[in-house]
Amino acid sequence: MQYLNKVRTQSPVKKQKIFPKFVIMKKVLVEGEDYYLSDKDFRIFTEKYLLNRGHCCMSGCKHCPYGFNKLIDQIKKKTKPRTMTFQEEILQGIPTEVPPAALYDATINHAPKRKEILSAEEKILALRNALRYFEPQQHETLIPEFKEELEKYGRIYMYRFRPKYRMYARDINEYPGKSLQAKAIQMMIQNNLDYAVAQHPHELITYGGNGAVFSNWAQYLLTMKYLGEMTDEQTLVMYSGHPMGLFPSHKNAPRVVVTNGMMIPNYSKPDDWEKFNALGVTQYGQMTAGSYMYIGPQGIVHGTTITVLNGFRKIGKEPKGNLFVTSGLGGMSGAQPKAGTIAGCITVCAEVNPKITKIRHNQGWIHEVIEDLDLLVNRVRKAQAKKEVVSIAYLGNIVDVWEKFDQENVHIDLGSDQTSLHNPWAGGYYPAGQSFEESNRMMAEEPELFKEKVQETLRRHADAINKHTAKGTYFFDYGNAFLLEASRAGADVMNPNPTLGREFKYPSYVQDIMGPMCFDYGFGPFRWVCASNNPEDLQKTDDIACEVLEEMIKTSPEEIQQQMKDNIQWIRGAQENKLVVGSQARILYADAEGRMKIAKAFNDAINEGKIGPVVLGRDHHDVSGTDSPYRETSNIYDGSRFTADMAIHNVIGDSFRGATWVSIHNGGGVGWGEVINGGFGMLLDGTNEAEQRLKSMLFWDVNNGISRRSWARNEGAMFAIKRAMETEPLLKVTLPNIVDDNLLN
Ligand SMILES: NC(=O)c1ccc[n+]([C@@H]2O[C@H](COP(=O)([O-])OP(=O)(O)OC[C@H]3O[C@@H](n4cnc5c(N)ncnc54)[C@H](O)[C@@H]3O)[C@@H](O)[C@H]2O)c1
After folding, report:
1. Does residue 504's CB lie within 6 angstroms of at least one atom of ligand 1?
2. For ligand 1, is residue 479 a contact (CB within 6 Å)?
3. Which atom of ligand 1 is least distant from the CA of 479?
4. Which residues make Cβ contacts (< 8 Å) with residue 540, sequence separation at least 6?
5. Strands 474-475 and 414-415
6. What is the pLDDT of residues 536-584, one digit of tens each?
7. What DSSP line would sit under 653-678, residue for residue?
8. Among 94, 169, 523, 644, which residue carries the largest CB count within 10 Å?
């Protein structure tokens, strides 16, 4: 006899009518939910109650005489399967059943709609390409959706396939797999897509507006699955976000080889990116986005601190009490005031966007916001008199600051600019003399007039800077195309006596500061991530790195003492600066010897069980990894700055010397077609093999670039490569002979 009947509630009113005799177990029955009624004692049970309790009456008989057990089985069958664990989801890859459609989450920062560039025929090709990832029975459901994404956003992101688990760098042991190295790469990928880290997480963009980890979610799912199942006898091959597959290799080969945006050179213009990215066959990997090595804002803050410190040295001044004027509080530029404070100077940074200014103020990266130029002048004079360390945002146009400080004779010691002049006509640079809102309107409605206003402002901007430099200010271009765009606007920025590589009146930050003071000696942005993701491990690695550098400085040659001191100071204050966002990562500038010694000390500590595994890497903006004629290699004056042999050699050399993964990209920082850059990742697991790998690969990774810089006759590099040859007898580098200028002239 069946004592339990299923009833679906329709509304609370009806419920009272249907169940007059029953005791209501829950005060409110949910409309549309299934309930089960017991004839025996007139009670109502929810499915959840039955499943949890396993029986209907207080006695809880194992074999229910009323057929209750059978019912439970039925409910179990019809209820959804249990949710998969994180590891099961990774190993599932692309689900065989189409998951529910995803709602567009307006609370997330999304990538802008991309330019509509594909013809009707090419749009069909883009769809055909996207559907390659899915089984044929899914195509009918997916076609209209992918078509809509392409129309609406200019790309097919496959939002529906975005995983529901939280995206962040977990403890390495939480990832599935047979290869610890592959688990480390899963962790690094998830960090690049963490909401706290990534700029447009749903579009798989880590930074820079278009710096992609993958082009769509199918690529992510498939890549994570491959990493979750691969062994140390295989290598995963990544073609610009697309996982081509696992290929047999060997245990000393990289586990992953990544290329991003590698094009036949004639097809490397910005519109080529738009087209081929929309077709789903390539992507812009920026530097550390598509190579899984981004560590949040810490990298840019550290790099900017080193630039500001060395900028003051270049002019023979202490930062304390001296003034640095610049602009931009955006993605990268926002690091300037924080870096100025760490360096110890007075920073004035202009920003036209009130929202961005507020964010930076709330974040604590700027101390004060001033909107009135007279107040600003008074505040700066006071800070100069009292030698304060203070960062001030001027909410307004940078040109007004340069002009006002000129009229009032406020002395600027160091000056630069980090507005987004690589993108001048679409919001990268705002004209003076009109409001922020008016500029935004004009940009969309009167683009030609807007362009005129931008160029007029650039001419004023350059004139004001020229007046200050005539009074002793040192100005440098910060890799944002300021001098390039100002020259195109007809501003007075050209060098009256140009030489190759010195076309402009002012140097770039690499030409005068980072190149000769850091890169030529091998100092560059070495970084590591504690794979346990435990902050205590990071603290321990900070201490280890600090001890190593303190020991090294005792015998370091005079030429690199300053860099050593700066980085010891940085690592000592690293915890205080609280710059960790996402994975437990740290950056510092070290030369080949420093990188190898720090890495070896980490490997020893892992071996002794003091810390968990550590992933080593670096920014591509480094000694050897990047060929970029107007940035990283702008201080190469033998004509070779337009070649890209160094970056290519770097990645090939790293790959057979023990890197866990390597990557080589077209684009990054200065744009598609303008730079070739590469990087690596290496897992330290405390073994002897890891020690061999780190020694072999890190030595090459730095000395490759030093040898090229030395061949270009850069003094610091000639010094550094000779020193490297003294420590390693197997290194034999071709050295340049210097010709007497008098003979040539
Ligand atoms: N040298 C480096 O190491 C380095 C690193 C990263 C970026 N960059 C370059 O620096 C530039 C800035 O990068 P970002 O990520 O901060 O860009 P961003 O667009 O996020 O920030 C630029 C900011 O400048 C503000 N701005 C524009 N015109 C202004 C004006 N006239 N006065 C005052 N404020 C103005 C904008 O409102 C914006 O907030 C880019 O061109 C980038 O390529 C250089």
Report:
1. no
2. yes
3. 1
4. 605, 610, 611
5. parallel
6. 999 999 999 999 999 999 999 999 999 999 999 999 989 988 889 999 9
7. HHHTTT-SEEEEEE-SSS-TTT-EEE
8. 523
Strands 585-590 and 614-618: unpaired
Band of residue 426 on the pLDDT scale cut at 50, 70, 90: confident
Choose which residue among 109, 200, 400, 420 to substitute to test ligand 1 binding: the one with the highest number of ligand atoms within 8 A of its C-beta.
420
Q: Could you tell me the sign of the dihedral formed by the alpha carbons of 57, 60, 65, 69, in that order?
A: positive
Position of tokens 């390597």? 662
Ligand 1 neighbour 210 (Cβ under 6 A): no
510 close to ligand 1 (CB < 6 Angstrom): no
Distance separating alpha carbons of residues 542 and 561, to the nearest angstrom:
20
Span from the CA of 637 to the centroid of ligand 1 (angstroms): 27
**Which residues are paired to 323 by β-bridges?**
346
- pTM given for the model: 0.85
Per-residue buried b or exposed e for 485-498, using 16+ beta carbons within 10 Å of the residue's own CB: bbbebebebeeeee
Alpha-carbon distances, residue 671 vs 67, 211, 575, 627 (angstroms): 70, 11, 34, 12
Quickly list H helices, 515-557.
Answer: 515-517, 535-553
350 lines ligand 1 (CB under 6 A): yes
Pocket test for ligand 1, best of 199, 205, 332 (most atoms within 8 A of CB): 332
Answer whether 351 contacts ligand 1 (Cβ < 6 A): yes
The SS3 of residue 99 is coil
How many Å is the Cα radius of gyration of the chain?
30
Residue with the smallest CA separation from ligand 1 atom 6 is: 332
Which atom of ligand 1 is closest in space to residue 669's alpha carbon?
A: 43
Based on the number of CB atoms within 10 Å of its own CB, is 608 exposed (0-12), middle (13-18) or buried (19 or more)? exposed
Higher pLDDT, 47 or 142: 142
The three-class DSSP label of residue 283 is coil
Please measure the distance between the N-terminal and C-terminal CA atoms of the chain and give it in whole angstroms: 112
Q: How far apart are CA 190 and CA 82, in angstroms?
A: 24
